[in-house]
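Exercise 7. Given the encoded structure of a 666-residue chain, write a plausible sequence.
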């Protein structure tokens, strides 16, 4: 809101206000702008210090109704009212608020800041451990990566203490006895708004209660708080929506999230593009793209990321004697099928499909892209088979397209790559584990036991082969991307360009709830926080942003080392012919994986998939009805993309082979 010059009311203006039914404890405490007109104020009560702007415009409401700006039937106490504001029929009063320009407040029960408050900043959220052992201090700009550190690096207590103190300092800075309702916001038909800061362009409509909250909308990414919502001790980030009877308490809601349809959440963190409908969340860390859409879902005491929870998904942390301390980790990309159940503690590997009810504490984190299926109360693990599922590829394609964040300042660093050092290192470990099982139990054994799961011999053999294809695909992707940046004038120039520029990227990699980065860099950041080299929250977030921006450079550094360990030869020792052979192996792996995906997609168009179609006709009607509803297999967008993908990669293979072939001929 622009700074304005204020003056005392003139005697004639006071008389006009009184004639309009207005009253004040002390008219000398009411200040107005130069162009003030009493006509925009009817049946109002002023107490404390009041500052009133110009009210010359009007608001057009749904249905085409227009209302002139002004303050009507309202008690204002210690308030600043901006220009072109409409405040109408506040049942009790508005106290201690700065109401910015172009704000609509209509039929609200009470809107008050009662004493100094932090508007949710500094509030501790008891994620995973309901007893508070992993509590996260939230603030307006909390990122998923910083929350990951605070949640899972409790073994670095001095660092966690520093981060918490920085957040508490931020909370102290934003603490105020005056709230703000940002410009262009609309608050309509709400009951109670207590100790809540409301950012620009926010719509709060028919909410029951907002208490001790920050609603951080802006013109790029407005926030909507809808009917019958109860929101307490929480922060809602730009571009998010909480509506239709949702009950949210002690939660951080990140950018582009939707919590709706009676969804209830307590002591939970939701980051970029999460969605919660109908069900319940308690003490969860919901990393980017965590989705729960069904009434019977309970997500409790777990970490999820890029996760889709099927109907009836449930976990249990109540097999305890000393409190609800058990927790679970569901790594990125995992899915839970309908009526799935997992007994915590457990750790589910990346991009794993969980089906059935699992009553043993399993750890499949080193066997990614698997199926975990219950049969006869046993947990059966099928390694790598999710790599050949068209559903996995569909998810990877849809996530970037479904990014609802429109704020130019994105708080969470989200890497969408299906194959990365993070997942490839797990595949490499998985191959070693599966081969070790074969050696120790014997290759003729039919069933192998691994971390409270059962694995069939045929599943081990198939899993190893699929992992090998995916690893070669990743190596080729990374190698060709690097090769395209090299000076291709000679073999010497190529070898020089292939050498990494620094050591960043070496060693293990982590998924910091969306941000895929080298573990050594995270450790370096933590040490710099401890040594006071990073002194503020902005410095921490900038560290994450840089890691995200440097991903592909760091990825090649890792791949360079990985090629040496996996292929037993450094890439800079490869001849041109060996590079050509690597590219040919890469294309073959791409082709083999896409072929498996193609065959998996065809299952969606088999005759048994047409059951329920053509309800009143024969086989031909069934097929015609199915085609009209689902389309033809060859016309499906994902099937087309598979075909185009293979063609693009073949074209790229030919291009790179031709380029390398020209160098050989020189």
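Solution.
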């Amino acid at each position: 809101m622009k700074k304005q010059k204020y003056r005392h009311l003139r005697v004639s203006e006071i008389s006009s206000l009184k004639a309009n039914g207005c009253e004040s404890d002390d008219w000398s405490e009411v200040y107005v702008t130069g162009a003030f007109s009493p006509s925009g104020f009817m049946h109002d009560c002023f107490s404390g210090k009041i500052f009133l702007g110009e009210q010359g415009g009007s608001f057009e409401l749904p249905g085409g109704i227009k209302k002139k700006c002004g303050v009507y039937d309202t008690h204002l106490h210690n308030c600043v009212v901006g220009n072109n504001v409409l405040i109408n029929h506040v049942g009790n009063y508005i106290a201690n608020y700065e109401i910015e320009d172009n704000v609509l407040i209509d039929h609200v029960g009470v809107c008050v800041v009662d004493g100094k408050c932090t508007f949710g900043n500094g509030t501790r959220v008891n994620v995973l451990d309901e007893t508070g052992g992993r509590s996260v201090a939230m603030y307006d700009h909390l990122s998923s990566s910083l929350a990951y550190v605070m949640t899972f690096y409790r073994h670095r207590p001095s660092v966690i203490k520093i981060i918490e103190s920085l957040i508490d300092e931020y909370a102290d800075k934003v603490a105020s006895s005056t709230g703000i309702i940002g410009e262009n916001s609309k608050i309509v038909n709400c009951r109670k708004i207590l100790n809540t800061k409301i950012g620009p362009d926010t719509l709060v409509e028919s909410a029951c209660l907002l208490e001790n909250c920050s609603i951080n909308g802006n013109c790029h990414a407005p926030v909507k708080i809808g009917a019958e919502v109860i929101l307490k001790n929480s922060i809602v980030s730009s571009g998010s929506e909480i509506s239709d009877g949702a009950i949210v308490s002690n939660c951080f809601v990140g950018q582009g999230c939707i919590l709706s349809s009676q969804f209830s959440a307590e002591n939970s963190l939701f980051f970029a593009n999460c969605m919660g409908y109908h069900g319940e969340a308690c003490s969860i860390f919901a990393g980017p793209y965590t989705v729960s859409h069904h009434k019977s879902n309970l997500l409790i005491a777990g970490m999820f990321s890029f996760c889709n929870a099927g109907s009836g998904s449930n976990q249990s942390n109540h097999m305890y004697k000393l409190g609800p301390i058990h927790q679970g980790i569901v790594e990125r990309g995992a899915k839970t099928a309908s009526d799935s159940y997992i007994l915590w503690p457990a750790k589910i590997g990346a991009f794993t499909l969980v089906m059935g009810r699992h009553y043993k504490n399993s750890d499949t984190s080193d066997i990614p892209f698997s199926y975990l299926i219950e049969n006869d109360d046993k947990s059966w693990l099928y390694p790598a088979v999710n790599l050949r599922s068209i559903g996995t590829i569909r998810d990877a394609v849809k996530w970037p397209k479904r990014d609802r964040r429109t704020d130019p300042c994105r708080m969470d660093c989200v890497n969408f790559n299906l194959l990365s050092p993070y997942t490839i290192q797990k595949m490499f470990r998985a191959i070693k584990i599966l081969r070790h099982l074969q050696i120790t139990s014997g290759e003729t054994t039919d069933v192998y036991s691994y971390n409270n799961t059962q694995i069939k011999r045929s599943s081990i053999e198939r899993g190893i082969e699929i992992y090998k294809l995916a690893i070669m695909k990743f190596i080729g992707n990374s190698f060709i991307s690097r090769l395209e940046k090299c000076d291709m004038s000679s073999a010497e120039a190529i070898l020089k360009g292939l050498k990494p520029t620094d050591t960043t990227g070496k060693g293990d990699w982590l998924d910091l709830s969306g941000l895929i980065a080298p573990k050594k860099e995270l450790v370096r950041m933590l040490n710099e926080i401890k040594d006071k080299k990073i002194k503020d929250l902005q410095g921490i977030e900038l560290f994450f942003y840089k890691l995200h921006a440097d991903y592909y450079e760091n990825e090649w550094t890792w791949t360079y080392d990985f090629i040496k360990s996996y292929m037993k030869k450094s890439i800079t020792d490869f001849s041109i012919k060996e590079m050509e052979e690597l590219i040919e192996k890469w294309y073959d792996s791409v082709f083999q994986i896409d072929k498996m995906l193609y065959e998996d997609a065809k299952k969606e168009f088999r005759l048994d998939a047409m059951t329920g179609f053509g309800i009143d006709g024969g086989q031909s009607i069934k097929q015609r009805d199915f085609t009209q509803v689902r389309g033809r297999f060859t016309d499906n967008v994902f099937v087309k993309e598979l075909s185009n993908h293979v063609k693009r990669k073949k074209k790229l293979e030919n291009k790179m082979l031709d380029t390398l072939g020209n160098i050989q001929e020189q």
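Remark. Residues 576-665 form one domain. Students should compare their own answers with the one above.
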